[in-house]
Amino acid sequence: MDAVVFLRIVVFSIRIFSIAVIICFFLVLPVNYYGQEMRHKKIPSEPLEVFTIENVKEGSKWLWAHCLALYIITCSACILLYFEYKSITKMRLERITRSPPNPSHFTVLIRAIPRSSQETYSDSVKNFFTKYHSSSYLSHQMVYRCGRVQKLMSDAEKMYMIFKDASFEQNCKPSLMQRGLCGAPTSSFTIISSEMDNVRGKSGFIHMDLAKIEKECAAAFVFFKTRYAATVTAEVLQASNPMLWVTDLAPEPHDVYWSNLCIPYRQLWIRKIGTLMAAIAFVLVFLIPITFVQGLTQLDQLQQTFPFLRGLLKKKYMNQLVTGYLPSVILILALYTVPPIMMLFSAVEGSISRSGRKKSACCKVLYFTIWNVFFVNVFTGSVISQLNVFSSVKDIPAQLAKAVPRQARFFTTYVLTSGWASLSCEVVQVFALFCNLVKRFILRIKDDFSHCPLSFPYHTEVPRLLLFGFLGFTCSILTPLILPFLLIYFALAYLVYKNQILNVYITKYESGGQFWPIAHNTTIFSLVLSQIIALGVFGIKESSVASGFTIPLIICTLLFNEYCRQRFLPTFKNNAAEVLIEMDRKDELCGRMEETYRDLHTVYCQFTATSHELCRCGCLNHRGDVKSIPNWEKLNPGKDRSQLKGSLTIHCNLDIEETSKK
After folding, report:
1. How far is it, in rounded angstroms, from Cα 450 to Cα 441?
2. How many CA atoms are closer than 13 Å to the CA of 34, on its beta-carbon side?
3. Residues in contact with 31: Cβ distance below 8 Å, sequence separation at least 6, in sequence order
4. What's the pLDDT at 529?
5. How far lies 437's CA from each of 24, 43, 448, in Å?
6. Residue 111 β-bridge partners
7. What's the pLDDT score for residue 416?
8. Spatial CA neighbour of 138 closest among 590, 601, 584, 585
9. Taking the C-alpha atoms of 283, 284, 286 and 288 in order, what is their torsion angle to the nearest 10 degrees?
10. CB of 282 within 8 A of CB of 337?
11. Among the residues of 479-514, which ranges form H helices?
């Protein structure tokens, strides 16, 4: 669903900017070009400023063309947004109703379980839900601490029990001169293969409860008999103190971010404030490279600061390189540090799901890039002067109206360097290729890395798409020449990303299309900002008619956004009761509820152990050679059992075929 939403964002951009290219090239661009009475050169020799709205003289009667183009683009965008929102909402509903039973619909994550000296957390959960939700409560599963230190301590205790029960003491003679685990030679480890049979027979070792080794934390997954009961429980306060027995609908099993479930619930608001302050500090620090970049775009200031560069900068190609291409490259390289840092901030906030963490990082990266790439860049000068610009709110439209057309060259170059170049890097997978080469030829690691496929980086690609859409809307009537480059980018992006999603990336987890409300809100913000900038431009150009018609357009756009927020957004936050009840009744009639209940106890598995760990811990109950596994050819097509070596010790109550599959 997330991949579909991502491609729908690209398709929406292609449609709206196709309309914008036609309108602006045939209506706005001629008005800009002939806005002043001047002798024109050949079009390739004209400066870029001639094609912007700066070239239109004050008091011109032709500014109605810009106002009309703004109306057409805004109305087209709102119509397309409405039908896209409606279509994606319908697809989300079909995904919920037509897919197999989802365990997360029956599961509630409960946190802030109150501590009791008389009973464990598990007993508290059982007693609470048996008392207050007896008709719908099914069972529960506790969450355990899973930090690095806790895992190392647990593994050490398991290994100690194995060595202790294997009677290693009789073969280990401690010696300070030997470097093995004990004093015996390293060959003494072969005793495992012969004496582990005795260990397997001990009932205490076979039925070892690993949950007792791990420490319970104040969180648990509670399973309910129906989807409707789980949803009601998640939405209703469970205690008079809202900081206790906090409930949320559980994420999907593969989407759970286990390391954050043990964070005390009382810490979450502190963590969010801390990450907000850290993000603001990071934005302020990032002003340093932004100021340096904008210093390069100002040729006059650059020559005054560095007089020895005057002769070099008089050359045309050096002037274009330093003031046009180099600032965009430096900005792009600096922006590569943003997504990992924002992902770290989102993890520290305490998100309970991986998709929620990625969605939060996506919003942070989006806000950061729009602020730095657009707002900071359109105001040249030092950091102090940039802050002084926003000292008066009334001056913002006029300042933007003056500054945005002057940055037309920078934004166009940014689309070429960051947009077109990023697509080629996406196809080549430069970072993954570099890491693979380092591992193979420098670190000499010969393992096959194909078993570690990549998941799609929505937190970097969605903000990139929305940023280019933002630039397109804000610059459409001011600098129309940027639109063809954007249209070509989105057309190439559709081909590239569709291929990557189908053939390169895999879906490990997803948010169910939660990125579309972000795209919708960003588009509305882009439209409103473009209208505010146009209002400032019309005021500077002394066109009262165009200014008067722009104000109702802003109001109508905001009303349309509010309608969509009331009509579609609630379905992205909560599932409808009628849908859940119908699905529950359908499953009861088909007899699928019992199967769903059985699966609930196994899908939320916090600790995943390899076959080596299972054999080492004595959790399996079949002893035999690997070659003796029944139905090997059927379960493993193309693999010859004669090539297998060694033995496999299995102690488990599973069927042997199912054990072989696992």
Report:
1. 17
2. 8
3. 56, 62, 63, 65, 66
4. 94
5. 47, 47, 12
6. 219, 246
7. 84
8. 601
9. 160
10. no
11. 482-503
The size of the chain, in residues, is 662
Task: Give the model's pLDDT for residue 206.
Answer: 38
Burial class of 117 by CB neighbour count within 10 A (0 to 12, 13 to 18, 19+): exposed
- Cα separation of 107 and 222, whole Å? 6
Residue 256 reports pLDDT greater than 50: yes
How far is 525 from 523, CA to CA, in rounded Å? 5
Buried b (16+ CB within 10 A) or exposed e, 469-505: bbbbbbbbbbbbbbbebbbebbebbeebbeebbeeee
pLDDT score for 442? 83
CA dihedral (30, 32, 35, 38) in degrees, to 10, reads -90
- Classify residue 102 by its DSSP letter: P
Strands 621-625, 647-651: pairing is antiparallel
Rounded Cα gap, residues 373 and 377, in angstroms: 6
Q: What is the pLDDT of residue 353?
A: 92
**Long-range CB contacts (< 8 A, 24+ apart) of 315-323?**
322/296, 323/296, 323/297, 323/298, 323/299, 323/409
Residues 145 and 261: beta-carbon distance below 8 Å: no
Asked if 413 contacts 328 with a C-beta cutoff of 8 angstroms, the reply is: yes
- Residue 145: both structure tokens together: 């601490």
Instruction: Choose the most confident range, by mean pLDDT, from 200-209, 396-405, 637-646.
Output: 396-405
Angstrom distance (rounded) from CA 7 to CA 19: 19
Q: What is the structure's pLDDT at 275?
A: 93
Give the C-alpha separation, 395 to 475, whole Å.
Answer: 19
Q: CB-based contacts of 212: which residues, under 8 Å, 6+ apart?
A: none
Provide the token pair at 227: 């989807």
pLDDT of residue 654: 40
pLDDT score of 610:
42
Residues 6+ apart with CB under 8 A from 380: 294, 295, 297, 298, 301, 403
- Cα separation, 156 vs 535, in Å, equals 69
510, 355 in Cβ contact below 8 A?
A: yes
Of the ranges 391-400, 464-473, 506-515, 646-655, which one carries the lowest mean pLDDT score?
646-655
- Tokens describing residue 363: 């919003």
Residue in the structure block whose two tokens are 């479930």:
261
CA 156 to chain centre: 35
**What does the pLDDT read at residue 652?**
39
Tokens of 68: 């009309």
Mean pLDDT in the chain? 78
SS3 353: strand
For residue 185, give the 3-state DSSP assignment.
Answer: coil
Query: Looking at the DSSP assignment, which residues form a beta bridge with residue 223?
Result: 107, 139
DSSP code, position 216: E
Query: Is-contact 615 164, C-beta < 8 A?
Result: no
CB 10 within 8 A of CB 426: no
Six-digit token string for 277: 């302050």
The structure tokens listed for 91 are 């697809």
Q: Cα separations (Å) of 657 from 223, 610, 631?
A: 29, 17, 7
Cβ atoms within 10 Å of 132's Cβ, excluding its own? 12
Q: What is the pLDDT at residue 439?
A: 80
Alpha-carbon distance of 341 to 545, in angstroms, equals: 47
Please state the rounded mean pLDDT for residues 560-573. 94
**Rounded to an integer, what distance in angstroms lies between the CA atom of residue 327 and that of residue 308?**
20
What is the distance of C-alpha 50 from the center of its chain? 41
Report in angstroms the alpha-carbon separations of 276 from 210, 228, 297, 533, 610. Answer: 39, 35, 31, 29, 39
The span from the first CA to the last CA of the chain, in angstroms, equals 28
